[in-house]
Structure prediction request, 222 residues.
Amino acid sequence: MSISADILRGHTDTIILAQLMAGDSYGYEINKNISQRAGGAYGFKEATLYTAFKRLEQNGMIASYWGDDGPGARRRYYAITEAGMRQLAADRQEWSETKKVLDALILTKEG
Amino acid sequence: MSISADILRGHTDTIILAQLMAGDSYGYEINKNISQRAGGAYGFKEATLYTAFKRLEQNGMIASYWGDDGPGARRRYYAITEAGMRQLAADRQEWSETKKVLDALILTKEG
DNA sequence: AAAATATACCTTGACAGGCGAGGTAGCTCG
DNA sequence: CGAGCTACCTCGCCTGTCAAGGTATATTTT
Prediction:
């Protein structure tokens, strides 16, 4: 089953931050990792991804630098900042809370 | 902790359908019940609520009728349709799936 | 009786995020 | 040389949220 976009809306930034906790990475790779972890059920569209990077960098959650390495096209690497880590911690907390609330709201027959 | 709107985006319709499984109800009451169940952590804004009713009715998920009863202002009651019930079942399935995927994406340190 | 409060409905316009479509560029393989 | 993969980015549309504003009735308070 694939997951609709609106359901993931609002989690985009969190997912990216979580990925960057595993180490610096670049757009293409980040997206591949996410798709893989999601079991193919979900992946960002490129436009969504780069929009998110821009937003996150503007907000100081991530920082970027050009990689000079390897073959193929140039890569822009991203690193999570201190502020990004704090944000991620808060987002994880919120996700736990959201699960409880939504379970109560959509899974129960009667309250 | 309160939950941000974007996080709930995409669940609005599902939450309303789930509420209507408990029986016909009207906007004001539906919203009160939702806030209550969410422990005050979440409630729809009126504009969001009525926009959702319109959307759901246009899509045949709910049907409405005017209540002639009681004191106070007139109430428009909503009932979930067969199609709405099927949709709700699918949404619940999707929510279960979403929880798994998001747990994998944002709660783990490494894949 | 007037004012405040609660119930109950609805619309408009602005805003933000997702994303289809399109574009650039380098490397590899047949 | 062309196809396909890697890798980046932007523009403009669409959709859902919601602040603000509006209407109307019943109860409670002053």
Summary: The first strand of chain B starts at residue 25 and ends at 26. Strands of chain B lie at 25-26, 62-67, 75-80. The longest helix of chain B spans residues 82-107. The mean pLDDT of chain B is 90.
